[in-house]
Amino acid sequence: MMKTAIIILISLIVSSCIRLDDFFYNANYNPITSYQLDDYTGPTEFTLDTSYKIDKSKINLFQLSSDMNGDIKNIYALYVGDMSRIATDTVILYCHGNKDHLDFYYPRIQLLANTGGKNRYGVMSLDYRGFGLSEGKPSEEALYADVNAALLWLKSKGLTGDRLIMYGFSMGTAPATELTGNPEILQPAGLVLEAPFASAEVFVQDAAGLSIPGTYIVNLQINNAFEIQKVHVPLLWIHGKIDDFISMKSHGEVVYANHPGTKFACRVTGANHSDCPVLLGYSKYLTIMEDFITGTLTQSSIPE
Description:
By secondary structure, this protein is an alpha/beta fold. The chain has one domain (2-301): Rossmann fold (3-Layer(aba) Sandwich). Helix content is 31%, strand content 17%. Strands 1-2-4-3-5-6-7-8 form an eight-stranded mixed sheet, with helices on both faces. It is globular and about 40 Å long. The protein starts with a helix and ends in a 10-residue tail after the last helix. The model is unreliable at 5-19 and 208-217 (pLDDT under 50).
């Protein structure tokens, strides 16, 4: 379904000579007027039972100032955990995908906050410019600036790179990979990529089977397959075997193969683009995350 829609969209774009860049940022798919988190009743990718619920005292929603070469915008961020312990805790920075907002991704953030037990690790996420209630317009440069704003905030609270795990899902794999391979604020200790795409150009070519250059349709320079070569911290790659939006074969496998260091592959049988945690089983997913963070993960412990 998703790939068919993209093929139709690309065909329209080619015939009308407009560009695809803005369609990568599907920020207003389900617009909101306020953040609801636990009380959100709109669509989400999956739901969690009450055993994963986080105490409201550990849910902190606030605004950050993001500076993109002098273009300063207020963006919304979420920290799940005890903010007074950031100077000693390990923190997972979760970079979400290309649609919706923090409410939509809250079940994922909530699940990660149960890694190793409830609130053992802090979890931070953010709405990029133009997403949710964050100001501004999305762009590739803005993605990096906004995630850097989150990193700068974490650093100001005492976080050091050896206690930072960068996690990118789908479009969020771009800032996660870029800022791990080319760190500006903190050098993460580990990188998790779920459903990464190889590059914007491969995404276009793979979606439509076009023989024209992808640059005819997009200006995006995002290239995870190249940037991952600069990442020398451990990598955990998670990808659904039947992902029909970002193909595991033409995208995920390429990114994984290009990583030069210690790495672990989690290819999830039966999983599409957004349901890897569900198909793995929440317990197994959290065990894999915990073992990766603590440095005890082995390839043999990951189901094929």
